[in-house]
Design goal:
This protein has 285 residues and is an alpha+beta fold. 18% of the residues lie in helices and 27% in strands. Strand 2, helix 1 and strand 3 form a beta-alpha-beta unit.
């Protein structure tokens, strides 16, 4: 068995794996090793892959069942619930449906508004032109660890409500603390611990995005927005992040429990096509 070559990102999140072809059957040792790398580094990067849809799905499903959308709680690509592969693309004309285009995608974890948010996701680069946007992941374990003791004491027992952005017109939602005296966003909601525990690593995670409409359960607006603004600033200034500049054949596998990710906007004429598969998760605790 060929030994894997590992290259760590210096900022404490992300590791690049060389010396493995994911198109071939992986040994049980390799699958466990990849899961351990994901637990430790949160983002695992595989270079120069050449995968069919079946091979991409087979690799992803080694780490859990595919995320299955519920028609009552829409998500990105939920119209194509039969196929676990979602096309994240701009100028992706050969596909009947593609999503996200060229606009900015604010820092978020996938499906945080659901009762059981997804546990992990994979993006596989098919056709990336020059001047395409990178993707940036933030380590939300470190986001929690680097908070001051006073803030930890305030938030440790709070619950967060994230409103489903897909009940709004696409692209209309941005980071906002909800003021119930003005408007309550549409759709059913599920509250989760603001500080959740990772089911595999037992680490504490700041489980908050800065992309959607949120509020903290049982807090007044005045108190909630102060905490929101404090955490929002803390996340944006977080140093522990990984910026991936895409090349064709890159496959990035990330822990959706322990990270949020961001994509800046790019030119509307730039072709950028990736395939995404998401793994189902559990109810946060």
């Amino acid at each position: 068995m060929k030994k894997l070559t590992l290259l760590e990102n210096k900022k404490g999140i992300g590791i690049t794996v060389h010396g493995i072809d994911l198109a071939y059957e992986l040994s049980s040792f390799q699958i466990i090793q990849i899961q351990e790398l994901l637990n430790k580094y949160k983002v695992v990067i595989f270079k120069s892959q050449n995968l069919t849809d079946e091979q991409l799905s087979d690799f992803a499903l080694r780490f859990g069942p595919p995320f299955t959308p519920d028609k009552n709680f829409p998500v990105l690509g939920s119209q194509d619930s039969i196929n676990p592969i979602v096309i994240v693309g701009n100028q992706a004309h050969e596909y009947s449906k593609s999503y996200l285009g060229h606009q900015e995608v604010l820092p978020h974890s996938d499906h945080q508004w659901l009762k059981c948010p997804s546990s992990a996701s994979l993006l596989y680069a098919i056709d990336i032109q020059e001047n395409s946007a990178p993707t940036i992941w933030f380590n939300m374990v470190e986001a929690y660890n680097t908070l001051d003791f006073e803030t930890k004491a305030i938030i440790d027992n709070l619950k967060i409500i994230t409103y489903n952005p897909f009940f709004r017109p696409f692209g209309s939602v941005s980071a906002k603390y909800v003021n119930r005296s003005v408007e309550i966003p549409p759709g059913d909601t599920f509250s989760h611990p603001l500080v959740r525990t990772h089911i595999l690593t037992k680490e504490k995670i700041l489980f908050m995005n800065i992309a959607y409409e949120i509020e903290f359960e049982k807090l007044s607006f005045d108190k909630g927005i102060k905490i929101f603004n404090r955490l929002n600033e803390h996340i944006l200034n977080l140093d522990c992040k990984y910026e991936h500049h895409w090349n064709n054949g890159d496959l990035v596998f990330w822990d959706n429990r322990a990270t949020i990710h961001y994509r800046p906007s790019f030119g509307s004429n730039v072709r950028r096509v990736l395939k995404r598969i998401t793994i189902e998760g559990e109810m946060p605790f």
